[in-house]
Structures are given as C-alpha cells and as structure tokens.
Specification:
The complex is a heterodimer.
Chain A (H helix, E strand, L loop, with lengths): L2 H16 L20 H15 L5 H6 L3 H12 L1
Helix pairs in contact in A: 1-2, 1-4
Chain B lengths: L9 H6 L1 H11 L4 E9 L4 H13 L2 E7 L5 H6 L3 H6 L3 E5 L15 H25 L4 E4 L20 H18 L3 E4 L1 H8 L1 H4 L2 H7 L8 H15 L6 E4 L10 H4 L11 H16 L5 E7 L2 H8 L13 E5 L3 H11 L7 E4 L3 H10 L14 H8 L9 H21 L4 H7 L3 E5 L6 H10 L12 H9 L3 E10 L2 E14 L4 H5 L16 H6 L4 H7 L15 E9 L8 H15 L4 E6 L11 H4 L3 E5 L5 E6 L13
The chains are: A mainly alpha, B alpha/beta.
C-alpha cells in the first residue's frame, strides 16, 4: 500500500471517529489540530486504525507515536 | 437500528459511535430518561459512550454520573453531595479482578485465605449496604473475570490459594448477596469474558496503557450485555416469541414433505439441532415468555408438525397458533392484539430473510433478529438478551398458563349472551389490599411495564414502592384476581397521595413527583428519606413549597399518582373493585374528594376517558393534553363492583 493510500484510509478513519467530514490529516497532524482528539478519544482512534488496516500497535509504539506521520510509518512497516 | 442488534460489529460501533448516537436521537423522541451512576474501578469513558448507544436503542435516554478514575468505593462511602444531588435511578459498579486487593499468597494457610476472602467481600458489602441506605436504587455489580495467567496452572481452581479458586469463592459470595437482596443484580463478566475469549478480553496492553478492565474491542459486547440488564430493570424486556415453523422449528416443509419426513429428533445431526432448539424455546416458558406461532401453512399441517412424536414442543405449549396464508406482518399485529400487548414486545423468529424484512418494515418495534443458520439460532436468541431475567416471579413462571386460561374464558364468553352473566360465571374472587411485602417486586415490575392501561405512566423502583407502603401520606392498593380458570396474580396498582386541593397545581404541570427518588432533594440523608418518592421532594426543588405542604394532617383530598391495570384482565370489572377499595380507604381517613390525572403518552389512549367511566367529573384539560378529574365521594356511596367477590 502506498503512503498516499494509507493517508486516504486514515482520513476515512479520522472522519468516522470524529464524525467530521472536513478532516484531512497530514504527516504533521497531532491531537492539537483536531478539537475532539483527547486522550480518551485517542484510544478509540487507535482501535479504529488497527481495525481498518488489520494490524496492532504494540505498547512501545503507542507510547512513542508523535504525529500522524509516525502512525503511518508504523502502519506501513507492519503491513508492507 | 441494525448496527446495534446482536450479532453486531463491535468495531464498527466503536468507530461510528458519534454518528450512531446522532441518528438514534433523531429517530425517536419518546425516550424514557434514566439517571445512571457509573462507579468505576478502572477507566469508564468508552464503556459509557457505547452503553449510551445500546440504551438509546432500547428507548432509554441515560444521563450519566461518572466517578473519577477508580473512585468507585470512595464515591459511595464518603460524603458525596454531587452523587446525592444526581439522584441516580440506577448505580452500576464497574470493578474487575484488577480491583482485588487481597490476593492470597501460595504460602498462606487455608484459614488465612478465608480471612482474605472475607476482608475483600466486606469491602464490597459495606459499599452495597451504604447504597441501599442512601440511594435506594437498583445496583448492578460486575462479578470477577478470571485472570489471564495461572501460577498454579490447571490446579489454580483446586488450591484455595489459587486466584481462580479465590475468584470463584468471591463470586459465590456476590451471588449469595444477590439472592438475598432485591434490587441487586450481577453483571456476569466472568461468563462474558469466557464467551468473548479471555486472552483477547484481558489483553494487558489495555490495562497498562489506559487502565481499561477489558480490551477496547470487547467494550461493545460488555455494554450490550449491561444494557440488557438495565432495560430489563426498567421494564423494557420483550414478552413473547413469534415463531415460524418450517425450517425454523424443524427441518423441511411440513405441507410438502409430510410430517413423517421432517428433520426433528435424534436420527440425524440436523434433526438433533432442531430438537435442541425446540427444547430451548420450550424452556422460555419457564421464565415467563409467551410462545406463539406465525407460519404460512394450513392449520392442520402446522398441528401435524407440532404433534411430531420426536418433537419437544407441542401445540399446547403455545398460547396462540397462527397458521394461515395471511401476510406475517398482519399475523404479528393480530397476535399482539389478542395478547393485549404491543408489537414492540414481540420477537419474530423466522429463517427466511424475506419474511424478516417485511415484518421488520411493517410491524413497529417488533424485534427481528438475524438468526443465521439452525445451529446458530440458540446463540443468537440467547445472546440478544430479549428476555433478560432480573426477577423470577411466580407470575413469570405461570404466564403461559394464564394466557391459556384467558383463551378458555373466551370460549366461555361465547356461551353467554349477557355479559354480566358471563362475568358471574367466572366466579371471580378479588384480593385488594395495601401493598404487602411479598408483592413489592411484582408491583414495581407492573409500574415499569404497563403502558396501555396506565393513567400517569409513572415508573417506580421496588425501593420507591416500599417507601410508599411505609408512608402514611399514601394510600396504596394492589389488586389480585382469581377465577375458576386460574389465578391472574397481581394485576392492578393504585397509589394515591393525601393532600389538599392546592396540590392539584403540581399535578397539572404533569410533574412526576413520585418519580423523584428520595435522594432527589439533594438534601441531607434524613430529609431525603422523609421525602422518599414523594411529591415533597420534587416540588420543593421547583420552589413550590406552598403547595407541597399538604401532609397527612388536614389532608382532605386524595391525588391519584398512579392507576394501572394489566391488560390481561380488561373488561372484568376489576377497575370498579379497585375504585370501591380506594373509596373505602378515603372514607376511613376522612377524605371526601379524589383527584384523578390522565397524562397522555403514545400508548395509553385506551384510558383517556377512564375517570369519566368511573364517575369522575372533568375539571380541565391543559394544552399538553393532561386532563384533571374530580370525584366527590357521595355520602351514600354504593359499591360499583357487583361481580367480583
């Protein structure tokens, strides 16, 4: 899956989770950029991303992930 | 909503919860509002988020109180004005094995383990007792799930020092408490985690990362199971199964294949599957579920199939058999009508997706589960929780018999041209008394599930019912009716509050004073228990202290806060017998006027002019459709009932 395709899918997930069709994420997007993205929604978001891509984040990754770009890197690393 | 019916896609629910919530709130407006306190031993955010969806799906709109992280015990045990003023209708205690603090060590002696067990149980028991004393609302308590590792391996349940043994013993103590205390329900997460898969359920990542008691993906399963208990407590269980026959209760088509060629019984694997399913369906009778048939068949063929010698379920197990060529949706409506229940109390079970589709579209509110293939039928029906058991009353066990007796009465009725003669021939005997301890559960159940013959549609918990019974400002009456065909059990409830004419203002506003539980006043414990369930609590909150001061002293008017009757005894003159008893109670304490109120709902049009029938005079009708009725008891009041002894 190309990086563009990953981002396309990520956009869908973000839109579903935050129920906001306007969201477009980039490499630099962080929780500060999306109003409803707090620590509790974060759990839900990760679960939805895992489901969408059929992969799992391990604890180390969850702890260290800084932005959507890093999230995409992990996804690509796992699903090839 | 399909997305929230079992079997559901939990991950979809988690992902789209915001949208689902929006749609659910748009779909209907007649929600039952309930105040639910969630006291967690771990993070509760997502549990609440998903629980709300499943409750909205059941027509219950929750308002939540959420404890701070892991403060479940402190929230109850220490002064908590916030929770007191929240006045919960229900408290859910979300604990898990992560909250067990007294695990035994392998080196502990058996007596030490016993002591640890008692210590841990006492911690919970103290909290439950405090809740019963202060909040007096239903409590739902998680039991404990098994740990995800076993130090003693397969002997973990054998040695008392093992954690599985410890959990089993602790759970048994919880169950014992539940058996001995009404209004206390176990949420069985031990079963749920096993059914879900313990390794996935207990994924430690979710505990260490987020302090979640189970993995995120299991939250919908958890919330669905919990919502089933809550809706059952609040009277939203389904009441009857409507079953197709061909390829649902047996394999094959009886009209084409002949009864002798049906797949049922121990001869073939498929026959065994249908036998097991028939056994499951038949057992539903024991928990008070009514069984009916809705099948496209010649009536004789349907009976021939049900008389199959290998069949578990027989024609006499059903209260109604509709085997004809009418559209199934019409049969469903006829079944609802004949049983005097609403279509939304029915569960339609049919292997044919096309039939399910039509019934789903045509019969408002009838549950139409996607039951899958024959070997899945039991699991789908069972896990759906349509008939979630929260109390097993004698009435539940006898319900089928009662409805069958009703059918016998119908036959009897046809033999009489004079209705009064028919009623006399029933040899009815009524027992009408103030609320009594043995019937409190049934009375509370009736207030929560009667919709049609219900003047004010006030829902009360058992604790509230008990407080009315103990409060001298209230006149309470339950009515039980027996006749030559059987015992109908408790079928009518009246609650009246003594006061003055000025109190009418409160009722005119359609306020539900009784619904405000004792704690609603937000006052001290002593004050709130004095106002328990009464009008005083609510009106004081609205600043209307003047009107609320009508207490027993100087009271000359009885305000009927509740009058309901089970539709199974419609047209039996039971309402007249109840009236006679209420009048008698009024006369005994010098009350000369009775005020009745009708609050319209979508379901209670049947009793719109009930008070007129009872001889009341209509005083006014508000712009919201509330009607107010007055009855001045004549000095020479003559009993209205002449047929019930």
């Amino acid at each position: 899956m190309s990086r563009e395709e990953v981002f396309e899918k990520l956009n869908e997930v973000f839109r579903d989770v935050f129920d906001d069709e306007e969201i477009t994420v980039t490499d630099a997007t962080t929780a500060d950029d999306i109003e409803d993205w707090d620590s509790l929604e974060h759990i839900n978001l990760l679960a939805a991303v895992e489901q969408e891509f059929g992969m799992k984040f391990n604890m180390g990754q969850v702890v260290s992930m800084k932005n959507v770009g890093e999230m995409a890197d992990i996804i690509i690393g796992q699903i090839g | 909503m399909r997305e929230l019916e079992y079997p559901f896609d939990g991950e979809l629910i988690l992902k789209k919860s915001k949208k689902l919530r929006r749609v659910l709130l748009e779909e209907r407006s007649d929600f039952l509002e309930k105040r639910i306190a969630v006291l967690g031993g771990s993070t509760t955010h997502d549990y609440i988020r998903v629980l709300e969806l499943f409750l909205l799906e059941q027509g219950i709109r929750p308002v939540f109180y959420e404890s701070e992280y892991a403060q479940y015990w402190q929230d109850v045990m220490f002064d908590n004005p916030e929770l007191v003023s929240f006045a919960p209708d229900l408290i859910f205690i979300h604990t898990s094995n992560r909250n067990i603090t007294t695990w035994p060590a392998v080196s502990d002696q058996t007596e030490q383990v016993e002591a640890l067990l008692s210590e841990q149980f006492a911690h919970f028991q103290a909290m439950w007792e405090k809740i019963a004393q202060v909040y007096r609302c239903p409590v739902i308590q998680n039991n404990f799930e098994y740990p995800f590792y076993r130090l003693l391996g397969n002997q973990e349940g054998v040695y008392p020092q093992g954690r599985i043994s410890f959990i089993n013993s602790l759970n048994e103590k919880f169950y014992q408490y539940a058996r001995e205390h009404g209004n206390f329900y176990i949420h069985d997460i031990n079963y749920l985690s096993a059914s879900y898969g313990l390794d996935r359920w207990a994924d430690p990542l979710y505990w260490h990362m987020y302090k979640y008691a189970c993995c995120m993906q299991a939250v919908p399963v958890f919330a669905h199971n919990l919502a089933n208990i809550i809706k059952s407590v609040f009277g939203r269980n389904k009441k009857a199964l409507v079953l197709d026959l061909d390829n649902t209760l047996w394999g094959g088509v009886v009209g084409d294949d002949g009864p002798e060629n049906l797949e049922i019984g121990q001869e073939t694997p498929m026959g065994q599957v249908y036998s097991e399913f028939q056994g499951y369906v038949k057992a539903q009778k024991d928990i008070g579920v009514m069984l009916t048939v809705n099948s496209k068949n010649e009536h004789d063929n349907a009976l021939a199939g049900l008389h199959h010698p290998e069949g578990v379920i027989k024609p006499e197990d059903f209260v109604l058999i509709k085997a004809n060529w009418e559209p199934k949706s019409e049969n469903i409506n006829a079944i609802a009508q004949e049983l005097n229940i609403l279509p939304d109390s029915l569960v339609f079970v049919d292997d044919n997706p096309a039939e399910r589709e039509i019934v789903g579209a045509q019969s408002a509110g009838t549950a139409v589960p996607e039951i899958g293939t024959p070997e899945q039928y039991i699991r789908v029906l069972d896990h759906s929780g349509f008939f979630e058991v929260t109390s097993l009353s004698e009435d539940d066990r006898k319900r089928n018999e009662m409805y069958q007796a009703n059918m016998a009465r119908k036959v009897q009725q046809e033999r009489f041209t004079d209705y009064r003669e028919y009623l006399l021939s029933l040899e009815m005997h009524g027992t009408i008394r103030s609320f009594e301890a043995i019937y409190m559960a049934r009375i509370a159940q009736l207030t929560n599930k009667s919709n049609q013959f219900n003047l004010t549609t006030r829902r009360f918990t058992q604790a509230q019912i008990e407080s009315f019974a103990a409060d001298s400002r209230y006149i309470t009456r339950y009515g039980k009716l027996e006749d030559r065909f059987g015992d109908n059990g408790v079928v009518s409830v009246v609650i009246g509050r003594k006061g003055t004419l000025a109190d009418t203002d409160i009722y005119r506003r359609g306020e539900m004073p009784g619904a405000a539980d004792g704690a609603a006043s937000g006052a001290t414990e002593a004050e709130s228990s004095a106002a328990a369930g009464g009008i005083a609590a609510d009106s004081a909150a609205s600043g209307d202290t003047e009107a609320a001061t009508g207490t027993a002293a100087g009271a000359d008017v009885l305000h009927l806060e509740l009058w309901l009757m089970s539709c199974r005894v419609l047209k039996r003159d039971m309402e007249y017998a109840m009236m006679d008893s209420v009048v008698e109670a009024c006369q005994e304490c010098g009350i000369g006027t009775i005020m009745g109120y009708y609050y319209p709902t979508v379901k209670n049009a049947m009793v719109k002019t009930f008070y007129q029938t009872m001889g009341f005079e209509k005083m006014e009708e508000t712009d919201t459709g509330v009607t107010i009725w007055r009855y001045v008891i004549p000095a020479d009041y003559e009993n209205k009932n002449t047929v019930i002894a």
